[in-house]
Amino acid sequence: MSSRTPLPLWILAAVGLIFVTLPLLALLIRAPWGDLVSSFQGSGAGTALRLSVVVSLASTVLSLVLGVPLAWILARSSIPGRSVLRAVVVLPVVLPPVVGGIGLLAALGRGGVAGRWLYDTLGIQLTFTTLGAIIATTFVSMPLVVLATESGLRSIDRRYESAASTLGANPRYAIRRIVVPMLAPQLAAGAVLAWARALGEFGATITFAGNLAGRTQTLPLAVYEERITDPGAAIFLSLILVALSVVVLVAMRDRVTQAR
Amino acid sequence: MGLRASFVARRGSFDVSIELVVADGETLALLGPNGAGKSTVLDALAGTLELAEGSIELDGVRIDHLPPEARAIGVCFQGDLLFPKLSALENVAFPLRARKVPKSEARARSTELIERLAPGVDPRAVPASLSGGERQRVALARALAPEPRLLLLDEPFANVDVSARPGLRALVRRVAHTFGGATVLISHDPLDALTLADRVTLIEAGRMTQSGTPEEIRSAPRSAYAADLVGVNLFIGTLEPLDDGAAMLHTTDGSITVAPDQPVAPGTGAIASIRPVDISLHASEPEGSARNTFGGTVAEIALDGDRARIRIDTAPPLTAEITAGSVTRMALRTGEQIWASFKAVEVSLQIEGGDGSALAAGTLGR
Questions:
Q1: Chain B interface, best mutation among A167, A176, A178, by max B CB count within 10 A
Q2: Dihedral (CA of B196, B200, B202, B203) sign
Q3: In terms of Cα–Cα distance, which of B287, B329, B332, B286 is closest to B309?
Q4: Tens of pLDDT along B85-103?
Q5: How open is the CA angle B65-B69-B71, to the nearest 5 degrees?
Q6: Distance between CA B350 and CA B361 in Å, rounded?
Q7: Does any domain span residue A192?
Q8: CATH code for B3-219?
Q9: Model pTM greater than 0.80?
């Protein structure tokens, strides 16, 4: 009943709402609706969009391939130091992305701890390449896969796997037919979150992979570059990202709130 | 050939030591209070827990070094543990598909099993849509699908409505006798054991305390738990012979007079029991020939239909059973002074032999 809520609360809430929604409304208002087509062609949005999709999808796949086994070890094995491992794996979630980028440079840059060997022995350079962009985005999104998957694994009753073994199933068969279907909702949620994070990644990408159009300039980087020379294009590119974010939100609502 | 197991299993700091021999077609019930070690025994038989010592033989072949998936067992779990994302048919077919049985054959055998054991259940239904009783039937079908040599049932009726239990018990009874192998049933409910088992082994605190047919346990319980199960008063102590051939049985809670049918040496151990219905209650100290007369206060009155069980804090404590009408007639109330009496010759007596075994009962006609 509105008479029970104090007025100051209403005022502060209204200010908060405006604070959050005004930038989004402003994007819609200031967008170059009249010149959509030329904006699209001029801003190189097509290239940036294609690159963003490729990088984010590749990074999501890589996050799953590496993150799910890692989550399994954290949830199921009895190796010592798991809580420390978990803290380290989750660190990229809270770490400033640009710091992640610096770290990646120190590790995989041409003079880096492992990068030097890669370059000198195999001639591979990861910085300023699309693969480098994929690595940078995987660095920040894999922890999300690990978190979601580990939580999912913990919530599965281990007795099902015991039951499966007494029924004649070896561990691999039991995992395939029993655990994975039960884990699917959490896996999907983790994948969607990882994809969204990869899509929006800026600091680590620009630091490690650079801002090269067509090779490493994903949508967020393109927005940053266009904002000075062509604000309309920057807004237009931003709206594409907003649209993709809304798609993620809708997908997440279905997966997460109905998770079995 | 059946099951022959003799082992020690350890879970944390808890040891369970047990011996089981179950022939094909026979059902053994493992009964005990919660925490006695029943699930430890089940896990050891199933292979999810390694033995600390000893062996398990099934059909003459040792299986204790084999992982669960290599043993010819079928397990029906407490709480059915049907795989939630698989349909009833897929659940029953699971052990067959895990053994690489072709899909069509697995489906056919599973469909037949469901029709036979869980009629009325739609094979395409998921477990969440079935009742507790239906799920347990499907779980039983799943355990039997791979034609095991040993069937393990863990508290099979725990999650089933009381009204559905009789039907399920009849099913388990039929299945256990016809599937061809040995059956071990784990339960804390004596009714399960008494209705399904050919033999019963009682387990308390990790040790076997008694083993025999349900009738043997009923007529001669050897522990407080066994006595509680069958509802008798139990006395454990040492005998002191009296001049007239009777004897006093001294327990830590008090002494009663018993009538052994042979001479006993002082200090011989013995276990005695008397049924609650054989204890009479009196408002004042009775006269008469009953050798056992005790005075005390009423501790608890439990009514059950037209019967009443009265617990009295005499020395030793006694539980008597009288009619509900008598409770009213005597105006019994807790805290009231009451007298209980019973005849020495009506006490069932088991005298310990030299090797600790119990010799024949020393009563008339029991």
A1: A167
A2: negative
A3: B332
A4: 899 999 999 999 999 999 9
A5: 55
A6: 5
A7: yes
A8: 3.40.50.300
A9: no
